[in-house]
Amino acid sequence: MLTYWNYNQGLRTQDEWSPNCWVQATCPTPEDEEYLKKTLKVPDYFLDDIRDKDERARYDYDEGWMLIILRIPYQKEEQSRTPHTTIPMGLILNKDICLTVCHFETNMMLDFVSYQQKRNLGFTDSVDFVFRLFLSSAVWYLKRLKQISTIIDAAKRDLDRPINNADLINLSRLQDSLTYFATSIRGNEMLLSKLKFKLPVDELDADMIEDVNIEMSQARETTNIYTNILESTIDTYAAIINNNMSQTMKTMTSVSIILMFPTLIASIFGMNLHTGIELWVWGFPLTIGGSIFVTGLFIWYFRKINWI
User: Fold this and answer.
1) Contact (CB, 8 A) for 291 and 266
2) What pTM value is reported for the model?
3) 174 and 151 in contact (C-beta within 8 Å)?
4) Strands 97-102 and 84-93: what pairing?
5) How many CB atoms lie within 10 A of CB 130?
6) Angle between helices 203-269 and 165-198 (to 10 degrees)
7) H-helix or E-strand spanning residue 68
8) Tens digits of per-residue pLDDT, 50-86?
9) How far apart are CA 12 and CA 8, in angstroms?
10) Which residue from 292, 293, 291 is spatially nearest to 264, judged by alpha carbons?
11) Contact 128, 116 (CB under 8 A)
């Protein structure tokens, strides 16, 4: 879907493209891509690169066209291996063309548009627009990290209940998400450090870049902190599971030892030999009593040493 935005003195939609407007292509159809190629003359390989969901953060030039690929956070609605991941969003710039292409509908872009409309200031130029998108992506990384932090805190509170495989699997998925976040944030920081020397930056843009650097640095440090906390939580889960397994094996061993001695007594007096006790009227009750006594003795001993 193509949306045309007039960003002078506010952010308003318009019916068709005009020079110096923002063209937002969200989940573009083949017809939308044909329009971008034929009418706006966008290089086709730019669109192909953006379509690759594993494309790294980078920029490229081609005969006056500039492609900027920014990695932004994305939360999958359906059940998946990584509930939080990152996706590429392409920014394509020319003299009078400002275009964003993303093959996913994200809350970040909805919030970006809503926030700019509330500000009612618009953008000074396409360079200001680019750096504001960088700032929005950094802010949304922090928002997603807060959600991950909430899940980790809930997992730590549940350490006192029985742990199953699903708990470890969910934490492992979060670990994958944090890995994607750390890699993407680091790539965005490197891209930003290059763009501030490649784009015509004025004094206001320099202030915006400083804000973006602060937010991205905070997002990177927060990601590292949560990664360490998550690794510690997973290690704690593993230690608890090992301890529970040790307690279970200890209990089973205790039960085996307790049952071994009555079995031994019954085996000895159950042999097909003449011992004299089989002729005694109290022989059988004595054997049963001895077995019960030995069993009780070992139960008392194991409880004393906290084995059962």
Assistant:
1) yes
2) 0.77
3) yes
4) antiparallel
5) 23
6) 160
7) strand 65-75
8) 888 888 988 888 888 889 999 999 887 656 667 888 9
9) 9
10) 291
11) no
